[in-house]
């Protein structure tokens, strides 16, 4: 990407909101996941990064986390694999002694101009990554979560109002929103909060990856703010939802951060 995403949030000052927390972020090697990792570390957390194959990006994220004073471990693998998810959680607990916050953020996305163009194989890939991966990770994490801990899922504005060329992706994001609300109901008695962030267009490697240059130039232009968000403009919401001092009475919420007035869950 010629214009690199901004994730360091240089004007954000940490205040130990997550001091001593152990956190796991899927898809944490770049984009929103990297931005969240940086702020979690700035707030005092240790961070585990689950990622698919971008080792160089993941290593850069580790260096950024460690520069903030946090410990960081990298766990490569595929969230479509339930065994990998279980092993990733075990590695976090072994390294940090516990798990307080799971951020389900890994995603697969490709544009398709029509339903005819969307193959069953592609549809399966999107669902296996975007919603099965969240299910596998949440199920693996749950035995280690306790009252005051939380799960934060990454939804999308496409799950709120659809997207013409992202039929399968939009469907998974709608499923993530419903999964968030249902799991929040299910875990409320245990004091474990479950929330989601639903970003609009964000300048990350995922969004413009398969678009033509002329489309990339217009990416986010139709929002009321007239541009895509930078990852650093989304990541503070994850701190807010992770930190009991900020959101101990919030669960089952899908928080839209879309650059638009009127979007809601």
């Amino acid at each position: 990407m010629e214009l690199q995403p901004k994730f360091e949030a240089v004007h954000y000052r940490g205040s130990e909101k997550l001091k001593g927390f152990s956190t796991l972020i899927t898809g944490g090697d770049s984009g929103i996941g990297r931005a969240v990792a940086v702020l979690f570390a700035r707030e005092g957390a240790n961070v585990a990064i689950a990622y698919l194959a971008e080792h160089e990006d993941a290593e850069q994220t580790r260096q950024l986390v460690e520069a903030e004073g946090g410990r960081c471990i990298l766990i490569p693998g595929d969230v479509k694999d339930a065994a990998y998810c279980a092993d990733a959680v075990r590695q976090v607990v072994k390294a940090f002694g516990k798990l307080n916050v799971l951020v389900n953020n890994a995603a697969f996305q490709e544009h398709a101009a029509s339903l005819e163009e969307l193959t069953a194989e592609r549809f399966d890939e999107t669902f296996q990554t975007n919603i099965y991966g969240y299910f596998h990770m949440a199920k693996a994490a749950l035995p280690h979560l306790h009252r005051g801990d939380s799960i934060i899922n990454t939804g999308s504005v496409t799950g709120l109002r659809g997207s013409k060329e992202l039929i399968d992706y939009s469907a998974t994001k709608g499923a993530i929103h419903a999964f968030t609300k249902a799991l929040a109901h299910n875990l409320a008695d245990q004091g474990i909060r479950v929330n989601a962030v639903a970003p609009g267009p964000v300048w990350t490697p995922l969004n413009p990856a398969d678009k033509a240059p002329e489309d990339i130039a217009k990416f986010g232009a139709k929002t009321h703010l007239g541009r895509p968000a930078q990852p650093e403009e989304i990541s503070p919401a994850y701190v807010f939802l992770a930190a009991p001092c900020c959101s101990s009475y919030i669960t089952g919420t899908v928080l839209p951060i879309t650059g638009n007035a009127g979007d809601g869950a």
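The two ends are 31 Å apart (CA to CA). The chain is about 40% helix and 15% strand.
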